[in-house]
From TrEMBL:
One cellular component term from this protein's GO annotations in UniProt: Golgi cisterna membrane
GO MF annotations, alphabetized: 4-galactosyl-N-acetylglucosaminide 3-alpha-L-fucosyltransferase activity
Self-association state and partner proteins as the record states: Homodimer.
Record EC number: 2.4.1.-
Protein name: Fucosyltransferase
Family, similarity comment: Belongs to the glycosyltransferase 10 family.
InterPro entries linked to this entry: Glyco_tran_10_C, Glyco_tran_10_N, Glyco_trans_10, GT10-like_C_sf
Organism: Pygocentrus nattereri
Swiss-Prot/TrEMBL GO biological process terms: lipid metabolic process
Membrane-topology descriptor: Single-pass type II membrane protein
Major location category of this protein: Golgi
Keyword tags: Disulfide bond, Glycoprotein, Glycosyltransferase, Golgi apparatus, Lipid metabolism, Membrane, Signal-anchor, Transferase, Transmembrane, Transmembrane helix
Catalytic reaction list: alpha-N-glycoloylneuraminosyl-(2->3)-beta-D-galactosyl-(1->4)-N-acetyl-beta-D-glucosaminyl-(1->3)-beta-D-galactosyl-(1->4)-N-acetyl-beta-D-glucosaminyl-(1->3)-beta-D-galactosyl-(1->4)-beta-D-glucosyl-(1<->1')-ceramide + GDP-beta-L-fucose = alpha-N-glycoloylneuraminosyl-(2->3)-beta-D-galactosyl-(1->4)-N-acetyl-beta-D-glucosaminyl-(1->3)-beta-D-galactosyl-(1->4)-[alpha-L-fucosyl-(1->3)]-N-acetyl-beta-D-glucosaminyl-(1->3)-beta-D-galactosyl-(1->4)-beta-D-glucosyl-(1<->1')-ceramide + GDP + H(+); beta-D-Gal-(1->4)-beta-D-GlcNAc-(1->3)-beta-D-Gal-(1->4)-D-Glc + GDP-beta-L-fucose = beta-D-Gal-(1->4)-[alpha-L-Fuc-(1->3)]-beta-D-GlcNAc-(1->3)-beta-D-Gal-(1->4)-D-Glc + GDP + H(+); an alpha-Neu5Ac-(2->3)-beta-D-Gal-(1->4)-beta-D-GlcNAc-(1->3)-beta-D-Gal-(1->4)-beta-D-GlcNAc derivative + GDP-beta-L-fucose = an alpha-Neu5Ac-(2->3)-beta-D-Gal-(1->4)-beta-D-GlcNAc-(1->3)-beta-D-Gal-(1->4)-[alpha-L-Fuc-(1->3)]-beta-D-GlcNAc derivative + GDP + H(+); a neolactoside nLc4Cer + GDP-beta-L-fucose = a neolactoside III(3)-alpha-Fuc-nLc4Cer + GDP + H(+)
Length: 376
């Protein structure tokens, strides 16, 4: 008979107890695998737990990351309403899908405004109606002007006040013009019916505004070809709803600018392009026009030695449908959008573009001499 000593008995009991505990663990794990397989064990990791986080039921999913805080929209303070034209600032979002800034007229927000848009024609000669000085160091002033240099008053003291420019010029910080758009797929274009040969919508005939050149050319041209006149020069303006349909009914439209300057190519050019009429342009050089539209989409007065030769060319095109239609070959892949008919409404587009610009461009920009740039 074998006897186990007390010390050995104690060791024996420890071993048996350990084996029994191990067996119990195995039985427990088997039970869990059978009955709890649909509820996997999720370990608690202190550094990953946030009371506001929802724990995913997918154990393979990455921990939830709270969304990044959205930066506040910059404030654009409209210091003057251009030509006192009032409109709903929400139009920037609803019409142009521009929502990059907080646009306001509230001058109490001046010290918080990221940028101030200042309409040149509204500035008094003594500068007394400009925003107060000193301005906040982070704030940009935007010079808002879309007239040609010929029709611009050089108000003294503005030279080095502005950080940004909004203008028709291509090299403005914010260039505002209706650009043509290119399409990869062919556009559907149908030439409108024409019952007039040459048309011109003109209201401003004041020589002091630089119109002398275009009036002199018109007078010479009209000796050789009939020109249908509309606008104040004809006694009354067209109604808004008649403007583009009338233009579309003309084979040629006199896109004569009131003054001749680089990049000064206005709605007088874009309008006929958009409605299917050939513009006959007088203004900047042909090379400058071709930076904005295909060279075979318009006729330039500089292509002819005089108004008589231009008239003969237009009369010849009136008899040659095939040659006339070639002026619209560009429409297969390029589209033109008309300007707003009410000229005051164009300011809405310009201001909304300024809003879009400051929403994107937050970098520092020093003030510079706007006159050296604009009158060069």
């Amino acid at each position: 008979m074998t006897f186990i000593s007390a010390k050995s008995n104690q060791g024996f009991l420890i071993v048996m107890g350990w084996l029994g505990g191990f067996g119990t663990c195995l039985m427990f794990l088997q039970y869990m695998s059978r009955n709890c397989s649909s509820h996997p064990f999720i370990p608690y990791v202190a550094q990953d737990i946030n009371p506001s986080d929802k724990i995913s039921s997918n154990s393979d999913a990455a921990p939830t990351t709270p969304p990044a805080a959205q930066p506040e929209k910059p404030i654009l303070l409209l210091w003057f309403l251009p030509e006192n034209y009032k409109w709903d600032f929400s139009d920037c979002k609803t019409i142009y899908n521009i929502d990059g800034c907080h646009l306001t007229q509230d001058r109490s927000l001046y010290n918080q405004a990221d940028a101030v848009l200042i309409f040149h024609k509204a500035i008094s000669w003594d500068l007394s109606n400009l925003p107060p000085s000193p301005r906040p160091p982070f704030q940009k002033w935007i010079w808002f002007h879309v007239e040609s240099p010929t029709n611009t008053k050089r108000i003294p003291g503005l030279e080095n006040l502005f950080n940004l420019t909004l203008s028709y010029r291509r090299n403005a910080d914010i260039s505002v013009r209706n650009l043509l758009t290119v399409s990869k797929t062919p556009n559907k274009f149908e030439l409108p019916k024409k019952d007039k040969l040459v048309c011109w919508f003109v209201s401003n005939t004041n020589p002091s505004t630089g119109t002398g050149t275009r009036m002199k050319y018109y007078e010479e041209l009209s000796k050789h070809i009939k020109v249908n006149i509309y606008g104040n020069m004809a006694g009354s303006r067209l109604k808004d709803e008649e403007y583009y349909p009338t233009m579309a009914s003309c084979k040629f439209y006199l896109s004569f600018e009131n003054s001749i300057h680089k990049d000064y190519i206005t709605e007088k050019f874009n309008g006929p392009l958009s409605v299917g009429t050939v513009p006959v342009v007088l203004g900047a050089s042909r090379e400058n026009y071709e930076q904005f539209a295909p060279g075979d989409s318009f006729i330039h007065v500089n292509d002819f030695p005089d108004a008589s030769a231009l008239a003969q060319h237009l009369l010849q095109l009136d008899k040659d449908d095939e040659a006339y239609r070639r002026y619209f070959d560009w429409r297969k892949h390029v589209s033109a959008t008309p300007h707003l008919i009410m000229w005051n409404q164009e300011f809405i587009t310009y201001i909304c573009h300024a809003c879009e610009y400051i929403g994107i461009h937050r970098a520092y920009k020093q003030a510079h001499n706007i006159y050296d740039w604009y009158f060069s």
